[in-house]
Specification:
With 438 residues, the protein is of the alpha/beta class. Helix content is 46%, strand content 11%. The strands form 4 sheets. It has an 8-stranded parallel β-barrel with strand order 5-6-7-8-10-12-13-14, surrounded by 4 helices. The chain has a two-stranded parallel sheet with strand order 1-2. α11 crosses α12.
């Protein structure tokens, strides 16, 4: 077959018993689960940066990847060539969406004007391929962390010119995302944080970050972009402490700066790990605040203290994620973006397909398992029984705001002692989960 992946056919669903490594065992795009097709629920996206630009470099070694589409010089012509590679991959994989940073798709020039022209030239090619294939843009974003100008941060930089440059870059990235029909726009503050507090005015930097986001909201309104703005929490790496530390931190920040009506969260499993949380914890926080927007689908290595961005093949992980997503009624305009990279040892182009197939199958399994649990009302009954004391009597009065401290004192003085606690039955619940996963 012609193209950059000549030995890879269109990836098809062949069922759990297939021995074909280039086929789906569980992801059947058209299969209906809880009233929607798998494709509608999962809205898979491919990350442009890891999949096409990642070369397997780590702090101790040079790149290992065989990527025929990467040239020694990052020119506009080569960037356009890379677009052809990307859309061949999207269509053969059957991924309906992709995501990118501005610098993933087009090189910087010697000036902002030249950089914008480079981006426009490549975006024109991307638009042509979107129209030809039907693949859509889940979200765009700007890289405000790679260039040395952002060494002190972008929106939180001590250098006002760096703030201004970042604003110009984000303005352009929002416009490009809008022109490509992007359904969301993501902010990831890679260097929005600090290394030491001795030279940091935290309050001033946080105020600047809030101002930056308001400027973005204003510009989106001015150009008619109605896509969802998303913030992606991450606690550390590359800075010691980043201001978008975790879901709870981001929710508090957005509410403090009156931005919560404009933003939701793009949550990533490996970032949850680095913050000392589970992905389920981060999802539950976002859902409880009405701010779950999208998901970067990956996983970390609990034995390592950095962002390993591995593909999500853990069925327990995907089941937990889908339990929350189903309870939320879906993911809205967001999706499941594979912000994941193949290992340095998996260096051949075909390994990109193996990795994405495994991730898509894992989330399809998680979806079906979570749907079965939901249909059986497994957790509904457990939760109802556990919180029964709040559904009537003094519990109902407390929740309704009808009991003061004095009322509660009188209640307990008359009763004398609290009712005995019931067992949490955690081990029983874990056994039940195991029964659905096997």
């Amino acid at each position: 077959m012609a193209g950059d992946f000549p030995d890879v056919p269109k990836i098809e669903y062949e069922g759990p018993k297939t021995k074909n490594p280039l086929a789906f065992r569980h992801y059947n795009a058209e299969e209906v689960v809880v009233g929607k097709t798998m494709e509608e629920y999962l809205r898979f996206a491919v990350a442009y940066w890891h999949t096409f630009r990642g070369m397997g470099v780590d702090p101790f070694g040079a790149g290992t990847m065989l990527r025929p589409w990467e040239a020694d010089e990052d020119s506009v012509d080569n960037a356009k060539r890379r677009v052809e590679v990307a859309f061949e991959f999207f269509t053969k994989l059957g991924a309906p969406y992709y995501c990118f940073h501005d610098r993933d798709v087009a090189p910087e020039g010697d000036s902002l004007r030249e950089t914008n022209a480079n981006l426009d030239a490549v975006v024109a090619a991307m638009r042509e391929h979107q129209d030809a294939t039907g693949v859509k843009l889940l979200w765009g974003t700007a890289s405000l962390f790679t260039n040395p100008r952002f060494m002190h941060g972008a929106a939180t930089s001590c250098n006002a010119d760096a703030f201004a440059y970042a604003a110009a870059q984000v303005k352009k990235a929002i416009e490009v995302t809008h022109s490509l029909g992007g359904e969301n726009y993501v902010f990831w503050g890679g260097r929005e944080g600090y290394t030491t507090l001795y030279n940091t005015d935290m309050k001033r930097e946080m105020d600047h970050l809030g101002r930056f986001f308001h400027l973005a909201v204003d510009h989106a309104r001015d150009i008619g972009f109605t896509g969802q703005f998303l913030i992606e929490p991450k606690p550390k790496e590359p800075t010691k402490h980043q201001y978008d530390f975790d879901a709870g931190n981001c929710i508090a920040f957005l509410k403090t700066y009156d931005l919560d009506k404009h933003f939701k969260l793009n949550l990533e499993t490996n970032h949850a790990t680095l913050a000392g949380h589970t992905m389920m914890h981060e999802l539950e926080l976002a859902v409880s605040a009405g701010m779950l927007g999208s998901i970067d689908a990956n996983r970390g290595d609990l034995l390592l203290g950095w962002d390993t961005d591995q593909f999500p093949t853990d069925i327990y992980l995907t089941t937990r994620v889908m339990l929350v997503v189903l309870r939320n009624g879906g993911i809205g305009s967001g999706g499941f973006n594979f912000d994941a990279k193949v290992r340095r040892e998996s260096f051949e182009p075909v390994d990109l397909f193996h990795a994405h197939i495994g991730g898509m199958d894992a989330f399809a399994r998680g979806l079906k398992i979570a749907a079965a649990m939901q249909a059986d009302g497994v957790f509904e009954g457990i939760l109802k029984e556990r919180y029964a004391s709040w559904d009537s009597g003094i519990g109902a009065k407390i929740e309704a705001g009808e009991a003061s401290f004095a009322d509660l004192e009188e209640y307990m003085l008359e009763k004398g002692e609290a009712d005995a606690n019931a067992s949490g039955r955690q081990e029983m619940i874990e056994n039940i989960v195991n029964d659905y996963i096997v």
